[in-house]
Amino acid sequence: MGKTVPSYRIALEDEIGRWKNFRNGLPNEEEMQAFDVLMDMCRNLASASSCACKPIIFEPMAISILIAQQKKIKQLEKKLNEMLMQGSREQTRSNEPDVRGNFET
Q1: In whole angstroms, what is the distance from residue 42 CA to residue 48 CA?
Q2: Domain map of the chain by residue range?
Q3: Which of 17, 26, 33, 61 allows an S-S link to 42, with CB 3.0 to 4.6 Å?
Q4: What distances in angstroms separate CA 34 from CA 31, 38, 64, 69, one per listed residue?
Q5: pLDDT-based confidence at 103, cuts 50/70/90?
Q6: DSSP track, 57-71
């Protein structure tokens, strides 16, 4: 009989466990937390990753991280654009004359 293939979630946790020494070797708590966030990104997309049918667990892990990072980049871009638009509107208002015809300084 053939060997039973573990579920993706079980294989994922095994793979994350193999990276434990790497995580513990990171130089500071901030980098350890960043690593943990990346692994959580993998866990968050485990259902989609299990559909990839990849025998190498790291490939869907990497794609999961890239997708989550791309979503975060888009959120930050949107927020930055909103801030820039707000700043542009405020700059335009400061260049308009007040009721007496004087410009704000």
Answers
A1: 10
A2: 8-70
A3: 61
A4: 5, 6, 15, 12
A5: low
A6: THHHHHHHHHHHHHH
